[in-house]
């Protein structure tokens, strides 16, 4: 599945009502409190989306076994004590874990809001019933496009789209709130009107239109997936109209493409401030792609309590607050609002995670990001196949690297 | 601008506001304050907001809710009407509250 999705959620467009607004206005202020835990139950996934934010190199022989049911249950309890309110069950494809209903029950019974982030492959009527009985609060299904051939081509998985449609109907039929998530890129951004119609037709209460974040697999495929400036501008017009039209019926969230912004996204509302990610093997990360940053040591829930890691882990301390910031962030009046942007993106584009995110126009490394955009613009005039990287039948028309799965599944 | 939730006045007191199933009232374990949880979001509530939402069960009309709150806070329904209605409309805009006929 497309882990890229969740990682983008904490980067709303300015002005949208987001949890952080409520949190910062209320009791929390500037205190450190994780309110969301992304539980990556497994990296295994039936989909091969080329923008997945799972690690691009999963070496099976170096991997530890996945956390067991009882390990996850302990961690879920520790998360609630630490102040976590939202538990996002994700992956890979979390439905591949047979114990998912047990984990949902553990979370729900201590008051956490439980959200299943799924490709919907494996979401049968029976499994849905089990999850509902366990107290699942909400289901989020990813869609790659509005029609099967293109969607299955993007997902690298024949038949996936049809299965998603059926699963979305089942979710509605059993009365669970449905969110549809679409990761937007050059291969589907021109399908936006049809995607919005699809979400309405499926009865979604929330639609997330999330521009690809160029991290993980997406960074490998950035020139193949980045939309052109004209496409982005048109998309914004369409989204705004849909937000207005659907107000009160369907919540439409738009995650803007930060490569085309002047200011960086407030990535995760600050490093180690509001979010935690736990990998299938129990490593605790400030964000799901943080392992791309060299020389950070991530602690594991098998060795430490979650509270210890949140408070003491060097990886969390490294980019907390503003002490680590270089100029122009250090003296910037916006440093407590955008937190200098995304550390992973800063590393991928500049080679140093402590640099200002080049998505900020004030970054001294801005030219590197602009060079990528200029490559996209130049090539977009060169051939129609560049403009539409997937044929209508889903075949990739330009070189695209699809995500691969872990070779074996330790812990199974 | 005539449908409820878009701020029509006078408020449609015969309609029955209902907190949608995607939203859940809880007590925050750290602050012991009421909170509203919904997909990807949380709102810290004050006591009045929590009192209003507890009454949004799809059975009470807006008039019933105003009467109940007036009793509780020693005010008249008319004094509370605009604030309560505005609050519920804002939640409707976020697709957290529906108005049932």
Automatic annotation (TrEMBL), chain A:
User: What PROSITE patterns does this protein map onto?
Assistant: MOAA_NIFB_PQQE (PS01305), RADICAL_SAM (PS51918)
Q: Which GO terms describe its molecular function?
A: 4 iron, 4 sulfur cluster binding; cyclase activity; iron ion binding; oxidoreductase activity; S-adenosyl-L-methionine binding
Catalysed reaction per UniProt? [PQQ precursor protein] + S-adenosyl-L-methionine = E-Y cross-linked-[PQQ precursor protein] + 5'-deoxyadenosine + L-methionine + H(+)
Any GO BP annotation? pyrroloquinoline quinone biosynthetic process
- Record-listed E.C. numbers: 1.21.98.4
Tell me the pathway.
Answer: Cofactor biosynthesis; pyrroloquinoline quinone biosynthesis
InterPro entries given for it? 4Fe4S-binding_SPASM_dom, Aldolase_TIM, Elp3/MiaA/NifB-like_rSAM, MoaA_NifB_PqqE_Fe-S-bd_CS, PQQ_synth_PqqE_bac, PqqE-like, Radical_SAM_PqqE_MftC-like, rSAM
Q: Which UniProt keywords apply?
A: 4Fe-4S, Iron, Iron-sulfur, Metal-binding, Oxidoreductase, PQQ biosynthesis, S-adenosyl-L-methionine
Q: Which organism is it from?
A: Thermogemmatispora tikiterensis
- State the SMART domains in the record: Elp3
Q: What is this protein's name?
A: PqqA peptide cyclase
Q: Which cofactor does it need?
A: [4Fe-4S] cluster
Co-factor: note: Binds 1 [4Fe-4S] cluster. The cluster is coordinated with 3 cysteines and an exchangeable S-adenosyl-L-methionine.
Which residues does the record give as [4Fe-4S] cluster binding sites? 45, 49, 52
Name the segments for region: Disordered: 1-21
Q: Tell me which family the UniProt entry assigns to this protein.
A: Belongs to the radical SAM superfamily. PqqE family.
The record's listing under Pfam families reads:
Radical_SAM (PF04055), SPASM (PF13186)
The gene name reads: pqqE
The UniProt subunit note reads as follows: Interacts with PqqD. The interaction is necessary for activity of PqqE.
TrEMBL record, chain B:
A Pfam family of this chain: PqqD
Transmembrane helix as a keyword? no
The metabolic or biological pathway listed in the UniProt record of this protein is: Cofactor biosynthesis; pyrroloquinoline quinone biosynthesis
Answer yes or no on keyword Protease. Answer: no
The superkingdom of the source organism is Bacteria
Subunit arrangement? Monomer. Interacts with PqqE.
The alphabetical list of record keywords is:
PQQ biosynthesis
- Which GO BP terms apply? pyrroloquinoline quinone biosynthetic process
- Specify the species: Thermogemmatispora tikiterensis
Matching NCBIfam families? PQQ_PqqD (TIGR03859)
Report the Gene3D superfamilies cross-referenced here. Answer: Coenzyme PQQ synthesis protein D (PqqD) (1.10.10.1150)
The organism that produces this protein has a lineage beginning with: Bacteria, Bacillati, Chloroflexota, Ktedonobacteria, Thermogemmatisporales
GO MF annotation list: quinone binding
Q: What is this protein called?
A: Pyrroloquinoline quinone biosynthesis protein PqqD
